[in-house]
């Protein structure tokens, strides 16, 4: 980097920039060269990420110590730039201004349109019809800028803002002294889409409303410039846009996007998948199933397609077919724990306990820490009177989580059947320590007390259960056992 | 041999010389391009019409953004002024109108304001009186105190400035103000004409008042529900009024309008519009066109430091091929030529500029055009590339407006004018 006259030390802002953005260094050196040469009014555009922008500004301040460099940040409310900038220029007389935040005002613009009653159709419409106030201002005022601000203006903006400049402030952009891509448009775009939409595949991560809206705006800008030869990419983007709409509750726009995606590329299996998923959410199961079938037909290797299809079949009460879909999911993605769970539950529903146990055991080979599977396996063993296995399983579940009352309760039930009454009582006490108003635990405790010959305790416990829940019929039954019919009738009447 | 310092000084000078802003008349960098623009000379053609006509003339003038319109109009102004005419030139979008949503009324207000400002010797009373009569009904919309006690020119000017500023900057007020003024545009025209006539009385008999309204071409086309555009509303529906000024007027119009299905109407109303085409660098069949390339080289040469002017190759460019490539890729469109030079210099540390720098400059420019193209346009661009002709529809108009299609003109051996079209050369690669 000798061209700046000095050897750059490794701890400079430039070195940081170079280290972190090796792909951008040529463009950045071009920018620095242009800034160094330009005299008078100069308009520069830099397509970069926010972080790159901040790093670049630091370098500019470092490289031009003789110039007064400021950062000027636009806000969502900024509809003009000239007046505020000129006022500040008169006060501070800087030589170079780095302008950031243009995108904020554009997000705001699309949002305002929506609030102003624009049908989201208009926003969703893939044409450039209207112009954001800031763009219109810049385009109109370019002569004023050139005449009154004999300084360097550098706009640091994300990829899609450049599209806005090219299409919506073309005269302003025409007067540029240069524009520089720190990130190739394609990469920048992929990155922004990736950032914006990666959430969807991770179940717990949800985009904020603002993030989704940004994604919609950015994707739209990109879709607008895709040629029909790149229909696959366009279709993918439409699907992503649909998901962003879906995330903020614009269901019909989301559906429109999916339909358009499929019209553009009927072989976009993920669009079929997304549409299926949305129809599932809308409880249109038969339609959803059709979408999943199309997706499976196109690509039978996507676990999420098989899984969604399974859920849909389950909702349609086609259990054997649902189990088949779950099985297919798990062949591709054996770590799909939700799917193991669903599959096991369906086998239980079909009273196919042995198969269910095998399913949970298989799941546990992939995640031995899954307490719920140990627990379910335990219950099933218990049901099949395989007491040893049942004990081992439920104890394992309790090892992993000793605060789950259901585990303790079933442990108690199991011990009761094994006639280990004292231990069973302890288990129920564990439940009651966590949930003192668990009527069923009180009821079972009473029953076990009766089995132990503790008549008073038994009556006391069962009555407690009935105080908490007078509709606990097992408790009434137990009371009948304990009290005999006569006392029982008396109490029943008084209740 | 140049030292590194000298080289850097040259590159600095060059970088600051290749700027995309219009040239002022008399700038040494101006190059006469009429021979390669199908013999169009705006000063000559528009100017001659103004000078010779006994009636008031209203002429339309158009060309691509950045093709040199303003440069040519400023030359026209200078030429007419040197002949003793009074010229009121204004670039309408600076202070007068919102290019996004401009209507006829706004243009009339802008004309009035500039005439008031420039024709200092005329008596402004008729316009002041009109303004005073209107002000009552505008007061609530304008929300400013009006001071028309004394009918001075300054007072009138400042009130007009307030009006145009409100129309320009306050979308909420805009329509209200127009609604109040629309019924009175006829009377404003009358007042304005009285004012102009007063100005003309002060002039020698054969000297004329000429208004040049530049930048009206920058009004962004907005298509209404019924498919009509705001351009049609302004330049066709209001033609009566645009033509009613008691002086000569040159209006710039959006190039897309000139090629619309309303072109015939436009011609009937205003005569044949003057279009500034691009400089022909290719022939219709695709071979490079030497005279056009020579002119572009001259444009480059004029902007170079003097000692480099006669040493384009190998002093400035490493080879003829590199220079030719840069010229060809500009499509003969001057602003892009300047942009390409600017970019290539940005990417250059030591002279001469090499092929790599030019290639990167071309890629940079291509990216801008590629991003301006909307998806359905690509198919159309392919057709234009083959046919070298365009249809008169909204799509082609948009393409002309965005300069993805360029117009060329030449005189054939029988001195007949031929017009043809091509896709901007930087996009050719994308069409393959």
User: How confident overall, as mean pLDDT of chain A?
Assistant: 85
DSSP summary: helix tally of chain A = 27
What's the total count of β strands of chain B? 7
CATH class membership of the domain at 2-183 in chain A: Alpha Beta
The count of helical stretches of chain B stands at 20
What class would the helix/strand composition of chain A place it in? mainly alpha
* Strand line-up of the largest beta sheet of chain B: 2-3-4-1-5
Characteristic terms for this protein:
heterodimer; A: 495 residues; Rossmann fold; 5-stranded parallel sheet; 27 helices; B: 432 residues; alpha/beta; 2 domains; two-stranded antiparallel sheet; 7 strands
If you had to describe this structure to a student in words, what would you say it looks like?
The complex is a heterodimer of chains A (495) and B (432). Chain A has 495 residues and is mostly helical. Chain A has 27 helices and five strands. Chain A has a five-stranded parallel sheet with strand order 2-3-4-1-5. Chain B is of the alpha/beta class. Chain B has two domains: 195 residues, no CATH class; 236 residues, Rossmann fold, CATH 3.40.50. In chain B, 52% of the residues lie in helices and 9% in strands. In chain B, the strands form two sheets. A five-stranded parallel sheet of chain B has the order 2-3-4-1-5, sandwiched between helices. In chain B, strands 6-7 form a two-stranded antiparallel ribbon. The longest helix of chain B has 18 residues. In chain B, 47% of the residues are buried. At the A-B interface, helix 2, helix 7, helix 8, helix 9 and helix 10 of A face helix 1, helix 16 and helix 17 of B.
């Amino acid at each position: 980097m000798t061209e700046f006259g000095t050897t750059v030390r490794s701890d400079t802002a430039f070195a940081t920039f170079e280290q972190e953005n090796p792909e951008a260094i040529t463009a950045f050196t071009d920018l620095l060269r242009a800034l160094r040469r330009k005299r008078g009014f100069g308009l520069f555009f830099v397509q970069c990420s926010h972080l790159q922008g901040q790093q670049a500004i630091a370098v500019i301040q470092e490289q031009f110590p003789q110039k007064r460099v400021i950062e000027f940040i636009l806000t969502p409310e900024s509809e003009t730039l000239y007046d505020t900038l000129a006022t500040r220029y008169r006060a501070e007389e800087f030589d170079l201004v780095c302008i950031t935040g243009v995108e904020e005002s554009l997000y705001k613009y699309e949002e305002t349109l929506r609030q102003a009653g624009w049908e989201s159709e208009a926003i969703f419409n893939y044409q450039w019809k209207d112009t954001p106030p800031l763009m219109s201002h810049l385009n109109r005022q370019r002569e004023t800028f050139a005449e009154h601000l004999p300084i360097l203006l550098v706009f640091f903006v994300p990829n899609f803002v450049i599209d806005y400049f090219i299409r919506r402030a073309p005269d302003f952009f025409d007067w540029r002294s240069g524009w520089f891509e720190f990130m190739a448009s394609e990469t920048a775009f992929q990155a922004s889409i990736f950032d914006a939409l990666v959430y969807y595949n991770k179940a717990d991560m949800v985009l904020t409303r603002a993030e989704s809206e940004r994604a919609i705006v950015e994707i739209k800008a990109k879709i607008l410039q895709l040629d029909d030869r790149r229909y696959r990419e366009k279709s993918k983007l439409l699907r992503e846009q649909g998901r962003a709409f879906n995330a903020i509750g614009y269901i019909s726009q989301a559906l429109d996007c999916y339909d358009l995606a499929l019209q553009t590329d009927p072989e976009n299996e993920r669009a079929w998948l997304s549409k299926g998923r949305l129809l599932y959410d809308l409880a249109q199961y038969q339609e959803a199933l059709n979408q999943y079938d199309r997706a499976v037909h196109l690509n039978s290797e996507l676990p999420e397609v098989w899984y969604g299809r399974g859920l849909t079949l389950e909702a349609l009460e086609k259990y054997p077919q649902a189990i088949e879909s779950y099985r297919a999911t798990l062949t591709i993605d054996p770590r799909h724990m939700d799917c193991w769970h669903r599959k096991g539950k369906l086998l239980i529903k079909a009273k196919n306990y042995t198969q269910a146990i095998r399913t949970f055991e298989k799941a546990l080979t992939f995640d031995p820490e899954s307490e719920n599977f140990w627990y379910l396996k335990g219950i099933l063993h218990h049901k099949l009177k395989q007491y040893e296995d049942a004990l081992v399983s439920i104890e394992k579940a309790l090892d992993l989580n000793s605060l789950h009352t259901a585990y303790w309760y079933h442990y108690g039930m199991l011990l009761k059947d094994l006639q280990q009454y004292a231990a069973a009582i302890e288990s129920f006490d564990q439940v009651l320590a966590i949930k003192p108003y668990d009527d069923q635990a009180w009821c079972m405790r009473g029953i076990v007390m009766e089995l132990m010959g503790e008549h008073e305790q038994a009556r006391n416990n069962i009555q407690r259960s009935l105080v908490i829940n007078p509709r606990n019929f097992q408790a009434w039954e137990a009371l009948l056992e304990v009290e005999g019919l006569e006392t029982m009738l008396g109490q029943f009447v008084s209740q | 041999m140049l030292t590194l310092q000298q080289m850097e000084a040259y590159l600095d000078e060059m970088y600051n010389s290749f700027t995309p802003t219009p040239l002022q008349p008399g700038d040494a960098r101006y190059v006469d391009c009429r021979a390669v623009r199908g013999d169009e000379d705006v000063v000559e053609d528009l100017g001659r019409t103004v000078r010779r006509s006994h009636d008031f003339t209203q002429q339309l003038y158009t060309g691509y953004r950045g093709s040199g319109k303003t440069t040519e109009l400023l030359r026209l102004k200078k030429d007419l002024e040197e002949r003793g005419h009074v010229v009121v030139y204004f670039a309408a979008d600076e202070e007068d109108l919102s290019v996004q949503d401009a209507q006829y009324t706004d243009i009339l207000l802008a004309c009035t304001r500039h005439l008031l400002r420039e024709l200092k010797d005329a008596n402004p009373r008729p316009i002041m009186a009109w303004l005073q009569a209107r002000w009552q009904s505008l007061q609530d919309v304008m929300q400013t105190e009006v001071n028309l006690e004394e009918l001075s020119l300054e007072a009138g000017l400042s009130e007009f400035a307030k009006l145009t500023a409100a129309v320009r900057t306050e979308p909420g007020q805009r329509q209200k103000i127009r609604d109040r003024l629309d019924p009175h545009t006829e009377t404003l025209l009358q007042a304005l004409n009285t004012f102009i006539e007063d100005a003309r009385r002060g002039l020698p008999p054969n000297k004329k008042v000429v208004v040049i309204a530049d930048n009206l071409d920058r009004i962004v086309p907005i298509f209404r529900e019924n498919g009509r555009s705001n351009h049609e509303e302004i330049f066709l529906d209001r033609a009566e009024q645009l033509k009613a000024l008691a002086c000569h007027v040159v209006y710039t119009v959006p190039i897309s309008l000139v090629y619309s299905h309303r072109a015939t109407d436009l011609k009937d109303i205003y005569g044949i519009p003057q279009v500034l085409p691009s400089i022909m660098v290719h022939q219709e069949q695709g071979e490079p066109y030497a005279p056009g390339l020579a002119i572009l080289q001259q444009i480059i040469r004029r902007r170079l430091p003097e000692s480099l002017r006669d040493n384009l190759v190998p002093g400035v460019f490493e080879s003829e091929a590199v220079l030719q490539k840069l010229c060809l890729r500009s499509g003969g469109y001057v602003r892009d030529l300047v942009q390409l030079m600017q970019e290539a210099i940005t990417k250059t540390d030591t002279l001469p500029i090499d092929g790599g720098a030019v290639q990167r400059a071309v890629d940079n420019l291509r990216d801008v055009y590629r991003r301006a193209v909307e998806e359905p346009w690509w198919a159309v661009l392919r057709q234009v590339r083959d046919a070298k002709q365009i249809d008169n529809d909204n799509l082609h108009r948009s393409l002309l407006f965005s300069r993805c299609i360029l117009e060329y003109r030449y005189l054939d051996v029988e001195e007949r004018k031929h017009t043809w079209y091509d896709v901007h050369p930087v996009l050719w690669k994308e069409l393959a």
